[in-house]
Structure formats: C-alpha cells, structure tokens
TrEMBL record:
InterPro entries attached to this UniProt entry: DUF7988
Annotated source species: Natronorubrum sulfidifaciens JCM 14089
Stored Pfam families: DUF7988
Domain DUF7988 as annotated: residue spans: 7-139
Protein name: DUF7988 domain-containing protein
Length: 140
C-alpha cells in the first residue's frame, strides 16, 4: 500500500468515521426488509441505498469527504466535486468516490454489500449485506 493510499485511508478512519457509520446504517435499512440474507435485484439495492443516503444528507457530504481525503494526500482536485458521477456513484456494493489527481485515479469504495455468484453462470449474481463497511482505497 502506497503512502498516499495509507494517508487517504487514515483520514477517512480518523476524520470521517461518522460518515462510514452512516453508510452502514443506510445499508442496513436497505437489507432489513429482505426475506432472505440476499437479493438478486441490484437495481433495487442501488435505488434504495441512494434514497437512504439522500434522506440522511450523507450523499451531499460524500464530495466533501473526497475533497478532504485528496487534500490529506497532499494533492488538489481539478474541480469542485459534486454528489453525482464522476465523483460520487452509488453502486449495488455501496458508495464509490472517484477523483483524478496528479499520480492517477483515486478510488474510494465503501462496500456495504458483497456480490455472491452462483456456480451456474445462468443464475444472476446475488447481493448480500456485509457485516459492516469494507473500506477500499486505491490509486490506479
């Protein structure tokens, strides 16, 4: 893990824990109505997660997290991030933050759901709620 990636991860863990916990809470709201431990409806996962993030104000805060993380890494953003692509994307796994900085593309993933693939390739992938949030930071 490179130093900028470590700095980014540390900044999120030290300064934005409430955001991570909020994402976790929103993801739990998405999974609570399921009658099993998983669903194959990725669009519903994405739509409900986005709605929960919007309702709690977290979606609006994610660009601020991105800007803070980039600054903590010692870089500057080329433009002010907004809570929409390409900076913030809500996926079936969880929110994704992206920014292009001098050394490459910064990608921060807050994985709240994991993809479970069936051995039968004809079966659609399923989405299962993770135990907490898995934070992934990469510089590509």
């Amino acid at each position: 893990m490179s130093r900028p990636v470590r700095d980014a991860r540390r900044r999120i863990e030290d300064e934005h824990l409430a955001i991570v916990e909020g994402i976790d809470h929103c993801a739990q709201q998405v999974a609570d109505p399921w009658d099993t431990a998983r669903t194959t409806d990725s669009e519903t996962v994405t739509t409900r997660l986005r709605s929960a993030l919007e309702a709690t104000g977290l979606l609006e805060q994610l660009p601020l997290v991105l800007a803070d993380v980039v600054a903590a890494m010692g870089y500057e953003l080329r433009a002010q991030p907004v809570p929409a692509p390409p900076y913030v994307v809500v996926t079936s796994r969880g929110p994704l933050l992206r920014a292009t900085i001098d050394p490459g593309r910064l990608v921060v993933r807050f994985d709240a759901f994991e993809v479970v693939r069936d051995a039968d390739p004809e079966q659609p992938p399923a989405y299962r709620r993770r135990d907490g949030i898995r934070l992934e930071v990469a510089l590509e």
